[in-house]
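User: Before I run my own analysis I want an independent prediction to cross-check against. Here's the chain; please return only the structure tokens and, at the end, one sentence I can use as a sanity check.
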Amino acid sequence: MLPALWLLSHTLFASPTISPQHNGIYQHVLKLKVPQARALLQQQAQHKSTTLLLANYADFLELCVQQDQRKYEPLLAAQEARLEKLADLPKEVWRDYTLAEVRLHTGMSKLLFGNRLSAAWDIRKAYLQYRHNEQQYPDFLANKKNLGVLQVLIGSVPDKYKWFLNIIGLKGSIKQGVANLKAASSTDNPFYQEARLLHAVILHLTEPEKQEQAVRQATALAKQEPDNLLFQFVAMHLLKKTQASEAALKVYLRRPQGSAYLTFPYLHHMAADLYLYRADYNESIRENRQFLKLHQGQHYLKSANYKLYLAYALSNHKPQAQWHFQQITEVGIEDTEEDRYAAKYAQKQEALVKPLMQARLHSDGGYFPEALLALQQLELTPATPAAVQAEYFYRKARIYHGTDSLQQALPLYKRAIELCQGTDLYFAPSAALQAGYIYQELHQPQKAKVYFKQAISYKNHEYKNSIDAKAKLALAAMQGS
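Assistant: Structure tokens:
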């Protein structure tokens, strides 16, 4: 998911030097109308920085959206060639900005395809170029936005990737990063809508209590530009993350489609989740099958087969469910948390507890009454395994939390934590994180800090990266960093 955030962070700064032709091409790129943008780019002077920037942006978007291993080497080579061309151009604001952007594209492309050490060096060079630009061109709003994104995201890097921070030589600052994003969101910048969309994503990541504001920002922009596929994706993503599945599905069904746009397989995977949440198993199966048909990358293959297994198992199609369960271990890689969770689930070979799974899926989608009804089908006894009991209390807590019944949710989270002692179940760190959020809402910051730190302390669970990042962002925001 991280590379997708960068789709929003590469904009042009409106100045007298940008031509209407380049601005029009940029609008096509931003909407993911990359084929048309490339055709128009052929008519532009190939030595100009803005032409090189837009051509590189199109290549980078294609790699992020499609994740096609076959295109990685040629598109990466094209990015490197543009860096060489830029090095020969006279120093000026567009040339320096494009250097930073192309270097960042190159680093993020390498990171997406697993070349982490080389990616770290490229991103470090990009960061240093952005800092240079900040000093030389302090009013260049596009540079403020991208520097802000780096500052926020680096501030949330999990412990597992501390080597990355050491190489870059940068300490992230959420406060400074958000300030830069807000500056770039000024209407003085004709591309302020994109900056505001990115700000919505960062707001959702860093300040859970402002999630509604973040969703409003993203969905408003998506409504203003219904032909912008990127804006629809971000609105759908934030709605899905905030358990507004029905609204997310409406965005998906209204999304712009056709050969003018880049093929975006991941949207089908997201839609499959949304249908699974509301127990529409046939539609979920159809969407994930479409995803597997279109997707040429190695990410999300395990997750897609895991979700297909669930859809078939919960609809009582055992042979198909078993086939997809076996596929989990045979396909794809484990770079994303979705895939790691699927792989660990398959490795454990645990029996599916249908009421718990149905409760989880309904709750994830925001269908809380249905989730509670599913839980009521499960009767706990002294013989019930501790893992099942822990999940039961965790799911019940999430349901009450989702309906703002905070005082009912808190003791259930704490009970889940107790039942997870001595295990690597993710219910404990996740429950600790959620308890921290509740204490924040109850204006008890000291207790909130205790639980955020407790969430970070857990080791070897499948959601460690995201839980650690969220807890660290919460702690940093509370400290005003």
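Sanity check: The radius of gyration is 23 Å.
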